[in-house]
């Protein structure tokens, strides 16, 4: 069974290799644009974000972190809504371009976050992001890319079967598509557990060791 599952994944990757390359490049472009957007911030916007970080890091030092169960609900809801939207878009012929936009925006957010921390905190900011944000994204980002590829591929299949060829059964592909999205949703729920129960402790530890307090911003 395990071998069959591995072969299925390998076949899926090989069949949609061009889409994986495309979405990965698009995601990286989002990261690049997000990091460049940091330089376009006005002084007022920069000061507002720094003030928010001041309260955030002071709260970490004092042990004021969100309740883990509440954080889990918020993180899981956010990820599942994102994936659910991709799944719904994949069920329509015109959904593929919107899925492309979503994966680009995902990279944009990550690029902006990393870029802002590095720009304002230099190596301290990079260390904070690497240890407190990067680990869960090792699961989140690949899962999002897989779902985006599956959504685009299914949308293109709808286009071929319903508009161009006007034939062919789509139900088996729909089942495979939905099963893959469900599997990635489970991965995202697991990442949400890490994000809710492990990341806060890492953030407290890193913030304390690096001395990330308000004087560092001034």
TrEMBL record:
Keywords: Membrane, Transmembrane, Transmembrane helix. It comes from the Bacteria. The keyword Membrane applies. Coiled coil: none annotated. The chain crosses the membrane at residues 20-43, 85-118, 138-159, 171-194. NCBIfam families: spo_II_M. This is Stage II sporulation protein M. It comes from Novibacillus thermophilus.
């Amino acid at each position: 069974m395990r071998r069959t599952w591995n072969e299925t994944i390998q076949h899926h990757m090989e069949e949609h290799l061009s889409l994986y390359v495309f979405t990965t490049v698009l995601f990286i472009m989002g990261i690049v644009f997000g990091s460049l957007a940091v330089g376009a911030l006005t002084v007022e916007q920069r000061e507002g974000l720094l003030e928010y970080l001041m309260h955030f890091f002071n709260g970490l030092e004092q042990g004021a972190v969100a309740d883990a169960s509440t954080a889990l609900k918020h993180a899981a809801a956010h990820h599942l809504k994102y994936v659910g939207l991709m799944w719904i878009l994949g069920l329509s012929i015109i959904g593929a371009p919107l899925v492309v936009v979503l994966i680009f925006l995902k990279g944009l957010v990550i690029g902006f976050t990393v870029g802002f921390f590095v720009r304002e905190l230099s190596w301290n900011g990079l260390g904070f992001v690497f240890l407190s944000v990067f680990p869960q994204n090792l699961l989140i980002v690949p899962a999002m890319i897989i779902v985006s590829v599956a959504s685009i591929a299914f949308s293109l299949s709808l286009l071929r079967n319903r508009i161009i060829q006007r034939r062919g059964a789509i139900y088996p592909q729909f089942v495979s598509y939905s099963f893959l999205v469900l599997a990635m949703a489970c991965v995202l729920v697991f990442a949400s557990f890490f994000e809710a129960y492990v990341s806060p402790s890492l953030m407290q530890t890193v913030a304390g060791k690096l001395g990330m307090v308000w004087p560092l911003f001034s």
